Amino acid sequence: MDDPIHQFEIVKYITLGHIGRHEIAVTNSALFMAVAVIGISLLLIGATARRSLVPGRWQSVAEMSYEFIADTINNTAGKEGMKFFPFVFSLFMFILFLNLIGLIPYSFTVTTHIVITASLALMVFLTVIVYGFWKNGLRFLKLFVPSGIPWYILPLVSAIEVLSFLSRPISHSVRLFANMLAGHITLKVFAGFIGLLGAWGFLGWIGAILPLGLTVALTALELLVAVLQAYVFAILTCIYLNDAIHPGH
Amino acid sequence: MSDGTRDDKGASQSAEEAALSARLRSLGERLDQVGPGRTAKPGSASRASADMSGFARGMRLSAELVGGVAIGFILGWLLDRGLGTSPWGMIVFLLLGFVAGVLNVMRSAGVIKPGPLDGNRRNG
User: Fold this and answer.
1) Which of A117, A143, B13, B34 could form a disulfide with A177 if both were Cys (CB 3.0 to 4.6 A apart)?
2) How does residue A22 score in pLDDT terms, banded at 50, 70 and 90?
3) What is the mean pLDDT of chain A?
4) Predicted pLDDT of residue B38
5) Do B70 and A167 touch (CB under 8 A)?
């Protein structure tokens, strides 16, 4: 049976050079990120190149994704949140494409590496902090001081609120990473059972129908998870940005 | 004779009408049978989407607790390393982190009202 972790291996294709002692190389991760970006660009530019009042297939895909994210931002962060639309939309499409491309056999799922998801989550986290202080000044710190708390437990509550705030990038990144990683490992393990059972001969092949059916079902589930996790990442970004826009409500 | 034929005609016409009304009735019944299915479709779709959002919520909750404990662990470890207060930093911050994790879970599950960290998540 093939090693189920093997699919997450980073392979270097071309070494571009060194920064300090760190090697800068084009890896399969970088390649698939580039594929995702090119795919998104082709979809959106191609879909909006020939605009018509009655949208065609591709145009309606582009319009639906736009409206979906616009609605999400409006519902969670309000009208002011729309200034972050390009940010949230880019994050959503990027993660969605990476997740979906990863489901194609023999491809590489970039979002199964916590480095990628943590970078994205930290980007959101830092945006919230910088924009929060820039827009609200020190009033942003009211986030950590709930109103109506007696003074003697205020330090404890504030400490818990600060920890709760700091834990956000972790839960934000771990959620996406763990879901994608676990899903791909499960898929690989169940698919591996087919080959193992098949080695037993005819009865084995009959028994292999069960893991085959499970693999098909899991692929459908993974498709759902891929879309869902991109959506969850986007909606949490909106919720966190909402704190930067209106703190201390 | 002519009367008879007219009667026959009338009889056949009434028979046709009866057949037509019977067909109409059966069609109506069939439509009624299909109708609820048709009207239930949006309902089932909304139920499916509710299931989907429930699934999404479950996914969200699982990471919240881990995040809280992890940040407590990291801060405690850094404090102990920096100030040499081992093991007190780890003990205090792990406990605080656990509390923060539980708070995160309860907030995103909507068990307690959204805190200041959640802004106007409900009415926003």
Assistant:
1) A117
2) confident
3) 89
4) 43
5) yes
Residue among B60, B96, B124 minimizing CB distance to A77: B124
pLDDT score recorded for residue B11: 60
Cα separation, B8 vs B35, whole angstroms: 39
Q: How far is A207 from chain B (nearest CA, A)?
A: 31
Element (H, E) at A24: strand A22-27
Rounded CA-CA distance A77/A85 in Å is 11
Give the number of A-B residue pairs with CB atoms closer than 8 Å: 106
Spatial separation of the C-alpha atoms in residues A190 and A179, rounded to whole Å: 17
B93 touches chain A (CB under 8 A): yes
CB B87 within 8 A of CB B80: yes
ipTM: 0.74
pLDDT for the residue numbered B1: 45
- Which of B74, B92, B95, B121 would you mutate first to test chain A, the one with the most A CBs within 10 A? B121
**Contact between chains at A167 and B71 (C-beta distance less than 8 A):** yes
Query: Is the CB of B71 less than 8 angstroms away from the CB of A170?
Result: yes
Neighbours of A164 (CB within 10 A): 28
> From CA B119, how far away is CA A65, in angstroms rounded?
26
A161 and B115 within 8 Å at the Cβ level: the answer is: yes
- How confident is residue B48, by pLDDT bands cut at 50, 70 and 90? very low
Identify the three-state secondary structure at position A14.
strand
How far does chain A reach from its first CA to its final CA, in angstroms? 55
Residue with tokens 């986290």: A125
- The full set of domain ranges for chain A reads 6-245
A239 part of contact set with chain B, CB < 8 Å: yes
User: What does DSSP say about strands A22-27 and A12-19: parallel, antiparallel, or unpaired?
Assistant: antiparallel
- Tell me if chain B has a CB within 8 Å of the CB of A178: yes
* pTM greater than 0.90: no
